[in-house]
Amino acid sequence: xxxxxxxxxxxxxxxxxxxxxxxxxxxxxxxxxxxxxxxxxxxxxxxxxxxxxxxxxxxxxxxxxxxxxxxxxxxxxxxxxxxxxxxxxxxxxxxxxxxxxxxxxxxxxxxxxxxxxxxxxxxxxxxxxxxxxxxxxxxxxxxxxxxxxxxxxxxxxxxxxxxxxxxxxxxxxxxxxxxxxxxxxxxxxxxxxxxxxxxxxxxxxxxxxxxxxxxxxxxxxxxxxxxxxxxxxxxxxxxxxxxxxxxxxxxxxxxxxxxxxxxxxxxxxxxxxxxxxxxxxxxxxxxxxxxxxxxxxxxxxxxxxxxxx
Length: 309
Hints:
The protein is mainly α. It is about 70% helix and about 0% strand.
């Protein structure tokens, strides 16, 4: 690969990478709006909106405009992703290139999966896969942004058992998201009156989802206590604290929407919360290591160096 001249200052990369995070989050929320308004098949085919027409026809009315508008947002996301890749490759931050490329490549993969979702009549399993891939892209974009704000990735700042606990929390978040998509695929908001459902009992899968959420909250509380007990760096404690706050808020929204019979606005807020949990989990993973200038932490002793503090 040819070496490109570094013409972009590293300080310019971070705001572009942040815009990439926001764009990936917004596409999830607008996609949720498509489903919650029953516009999932407002454009009944793909890549065209209807047979022989790229744009929605008058017969499709508002549903077609909503679905088509969401598709058009993908192009804005592509522009931001290309700008991120260009900024990274034209800067000295070679360590960010893999994340930038992954963030870009995820968009055509997401578009193809979206096409399959439409062509299968909003099959709940392809809808779930579409959402979960979006969560992966949000996590990648978040880590890219956070790393772009520092000179590089340094040494582990916490004891290794705590780092392992963070891995467990990330796995629990993934499980929560998966069960959440099963709940959605079993509930009333299918995206179109003719779309299929999973066939699972909504109450049962909702309870399973809630159980995994309780596990996640318990793990996060345990991590936060352990980080304070071992006098771990402030960035790690803050990341755990903020993730716990988002989890609790998301749990409250989830219970309220369940007992109020899933009003569309609360469901959309819950989807936005899922994006935030993914981003804050990525931040927690990032916070376990310091910048490239940080000193390593001895496994047998708490992080007491001035740099770690």
